[in-house]
Amino acid sequence: MPRSLPDQPFRPATILVRGGQNRSSYDEMSEPVHLTSGFMYESAQQAEDTFLGTAQHYQYSRFGNPTIEALQQKLAALEGAEACRVTASGMAAVHAAMLSHLKAGDRVVASRALFGSCHWIVSTLLPRYGIETVFVDGADLNQWADALKTRTALVLLETPSNPMLEMVDLRAVSDLAHAAGAIVVVDNVFATPLLQRPMEFGADVVVYSATKHFDGQGRVLGGAVLGSKKWVDDTLQPFIRNTGPSISPFNAWVVLKGLETLHIRIPAMCANAAKVADFLASRPEVSRTLYPFLASHPQQALARKQMSAGGSLVTFDVAGGKDAAFRVLNALRLVDISNNLGDARSMVTHPATTTHMKVGPEERARLGITDGTVRLSVGLEDVQDVIEDLAQALDATRGSLRAAAE
Question: pTM, whole model, 2 decimals?
């Protein structure tokens, strides 16, 4: 079984480098990759006892695997959670966290500002199974209070949200949700556990796309669900075991190695993003710049209360709508066009035509996503090179707008 750290409160950097170690009898330095679908038993009796649960032994990699367990232990220690289960993708994590807990007749209240696929689960999938769903504007506590006057099974939210970086007051919403009988599920992918730990503000379950900052280099897919040991063992684990959203051991190993540098990458990306946000806010071609720690962000005080830094994402509106936004994206020479985020490489996407295309124009308008909105994930390049690339792309757009006006 994975080696545990000594029983003392280590800091995040030490947990990321040392947590969840899983050395075999060969005493290797790097965690081994257990690429196996199944496991052998010493006897038929051991197999029976394993399936009965009276003996501890790995059965099948869909149920558990030493490499996967090492990742789960490291993430639980980092988050300050009692237990963790990792999944094949971030959306598998969100789906498992919700569907494992819900049944027909239940009620869900969700922040409107969700990633496109999360929005689809709440708006389209859950009602098919007889689950009532209600959306609220996440920043409006009055809407949360009204929606949670009725008994509710689950609350789902993102903070900061994708892509508009809207903040939700975690403590206030968690208190309202618990009074309504709900568990609170928080998608914390933009903040990571290094910048924000939702359970410290009352959340019950935290989900991640490990594809993003945890891997951090655009290599593999993965997801994680964290919560109390009782909820994970009694509610989540049977769902995962029997529906099979399991991560591959190799992908788990890649994420494990990525985590070893998370505490170095995240502060550097945050510092770069803050400088990029200041630059974009100064440009006449940009009509709006959103970054949680920017003085102009409408919820800056809440962001600073809940987060230790502003994150690696910056969202901005290009004046001139879709055509102007596309000209900026197409003029970039260094920054890549990609719908991924949290990578060592800076990348940019146009939410209205990619990640949030299918939520529809009316819902995008309610979320504040315009045809000129651009989401920028700031990476680890020299920040001045990123700024210069954005500058030349915006300069080209300004020239095009002037030519069109003439």
Answer: 0.94
Could you tell me whether strands 313-318 and 373-377 are parallel, antiparallel, or unpaired per DSSP bridges?
antiparallel
Q: How far apart are the first and last CA of the chain?
A: 71
DSSP annotation of 262 reads H
Q: Examine the fold and report which residue of 209, 225, 259 is the final residue of a domain before the chain moves on.
A: 259
- pLDDT, tens digit, 9 for 90 and up, residues 160-187: 999 999 999 999 999 999 999 999 999 9
Please name the residue that has the structure tokens 């750290």: 5
239 plus 287 within the same structural domain = no
User: What is the amino acid identity at position 33?
Assistant: V
Please, are residues 263 and 194 in contact by the beta-carbon 8 Å criterion?
yes
229 and 350 in one domain? Answer: no
Whole-angstrom Cα distance, residue 18 to residue 34? Answer: 19
Single out the residue of 161, 155, 150, 160 nearest to residue 205, CA to CA. Answer: 155
State the CB neighbour count (10 A cutoff) for residue 50: 17
7 in any annotated domain: no
Question: Count of CB atoms within 10 A of residue 402's CB?
Answer: 9
